[in-house]
Amino acid sequence: VEAVHLIADGKAPRIPQPKEGATYEGIQKKENAEISWDQPAAALHNWIRGHDKVPGAWATIDDQVVTFYGSSLLDASVPAGQELAIKGASRPGLVTKSGLVIFGNDGKMVLVRNLQFEDGKMIPASKYFSSGETTTLELTEEEKKMAEDIR
Fold first, then answer.
1. Phi (first) and psi of residue 68, to 5 degrees
2. pLDDT tens, 14-29?
3. Phi and psi (nearest 5°) for 6?
4. Which InterPro entries does the record cross-reference, listed alphabetically (predicted)?
5. CATH number, domain at 94?
């Protein structure tokens, strides 16, 4: 009660908190979240997950900033996929049916599930090479009649 009264009266002592031993880290900025590729797979995974969702760990692919989301360590044989050159990486990534596989300097793998481009468009990493394709839905006569009935 005494402490509350001191605060209410404006007489409570003010002791600045020392910086030594402080554990608070300031807000991360996007420019500081670039992926450093000379690390083991576990460190890459921790970096990506640590920056997921804000500000997002990123790398340069095809001269544009691509942000990586949803990583997990991959403990299996190297999957089949299409190679993707990533600036600074010692080994190209692989776009597989599960996502983008990236490699640490220890040869182990990390699976990244989603990628976001500079324009804000997010895609599943497995669709990197097919992101520009569009498909058209073709309805059968029966489905066209059903659609008309629903309208």
1. -100, 135
2. 888 888 877 766 677 8
3. -65, -40
4. Formyl_trans_C, Formyl_trans_C_sf, Formyl_transferase-like_C_sf
5. 3.10.25.10
